[in-house]
Design brief:
With about 260 residues, this protein is an alpha/beta fold. Helix content is about 40%, strand content about 20%. It binds zinc ion (ZN).
Amino acid sequence: MTYAVINDYIEKSKYPIKAKYEMTPTSITIHNTWNDASAVAEVEYMQRNGNAVSFHVAIDDKHAIVAVPFSRNCWHAGDGSSLTSGNRTSIGIEICYSKSAGDKYRKAEANAIEYTAQLLKKYGWGIDRVRFHKEWSGKNCPHRILDEGRGDSFKKSIANRLVELNKKLVTQVSKPVATKTATQTKGTYRIKTGTFKNASALADAVNKIKTDFGFVIHEAADTTSFNSDYRIYTGTFTTKEAAENARAKITAKYGWLTYLIDETK
Ligand SMILES: [Zn+2]
């Protein structure tokens, strides 16, 4: 059960369609995607299409990709736009590969349990804050969890994990606070490239970047029938300056489009 959290936020120009309102979240809503696309593909598709359908996080066996900040609403609960609707109050989490995958789906679900427990801890919430899409609108979602009769056990797994996390919180409370230096912005930063035209162009790019700079490549390529997404995600940098410096080098050498992703929590 390991996954990387990547913040790959939607462009603000898409807010009117995808994330119209400011939001102070009060719950978390669990969904199944009902397809076999990866989290990367699910997010790319959501960001690209013009439908008023959106979600905050897509989770698969490898990634939790945060596509919309939790300070904005998403259209995922199917219950309208009143101030108390799920659409206006709840963080929408899509668990990927739910249609027919075996092991990949089970890993995605385990990651979603971990991620949701972490989120509950972060907000100081209890398990009562976790809801299923069905509880808002009646839709049979998350279909796989519900069809397999595991609704209660799924929530129980999150609750158990939350208990563990809260115990750890108590023992870690005396940990010293890291000191900040004047010129370095500490955090978690990653570089994402634009898309390459095919798998071999991507492989060439990965080779170049490794040979020329020795940068760690976290992830390259995610190809599904749903969408082809040939990008490079580097490993993380611990300061913004280091990441910007690396990004400048990549751009200067290859002229590629690159993005700085700020994953600082
Ligand atoms: Zn749903």
